[in-house]
Design brief:
With 178 residues, the chain is α+β, with helices and mostly antiparallel strands. It has a single domain, classed as NADH Oxidase, CATH 3.40.109.10. Helix content is 35%, strand content 16%. It contains 6 helices and 4 strands, in the order ααβαβαβαβα.
Length: 178
């Protein structure tokens, strides 16, 4: 699953990554998509349980319908690719918490791999499990944890952000104690 692509430095990819919700109408090269998917596959998980399956969706009509699964998922309809994160129905709250933690790691790992390639991304939750199940043929013993849309940014390329809109570092970082 490896390729010979031009890479950003890791720190630059971290600083350049931002939520991109408007995409150019062009596909993601197959070798770039494979790298993003490999990043998901390589993600660490609690006790190495790997509670995931990833459904890769490029069909325009399916993307349009997935965009209807939540009011804040509209950007999915215009993406080149959306990866749907699917997990087993959790047995209890503890299992659910770890599934969401692990899926968050997989989401960020894919997003950083994409940023490294100059590909924009944005995640979304979903509310309409039945619609997602219908569109993607998800088995009844699974649920959709979230969606990650990918595409080439329509507005401006990804570049390290010098002054991000973040809370000041000294208000966020607590050393040793609160």
């Amino acid at each position: 699953m490896t390729s010979n692509v031009t890479d950003m430095e890791t720190w630059d990819a971290i600083r350049a990554r931002r939520n991109v919700r408007a995409y150019e109408d062009r596909p993601i090269p197959p070798e770039h998509l494979e790298r993003i998917l490999e990043a998901a596959w390589r993600t660490p998980s609690s006790m190495n349980e790997q509670p995931w399956d990833f459904v890769v969706c490029t069909d325009r009509e399916a993307l349009r319908r997935l965009a209807e699964t939540w009011r804040y998922a509209r950007h999915v309809g215009g993406s080149a690719v959306t990866v749907v994160l699917v997990a087993p129905l959790p047995a209890d709250q503890d299992s659910r918490d770890w599934i969401f933690y692990d899926m968050g790691q997989a989401t960020m790992q894919m997003m950083l791999a994409a940023a490294d390639l100059g590909i924009g991304s944005s995640h979304a939750a979903l509310d309409d499990q039945a619609l997602a199940r219908e569109v993607l043929g998800i088995p009844e013993d699974r649920f959709c944890v979230g969606l990650v849309a990918f595409g080439h940014p329509a507005d401006r390329p990804l570049r390290p952000i010098e002054r991000p809109d973040r809370r000041p570092l000294d208000q966020v970082i607590h050393r040793e104690r609160w």
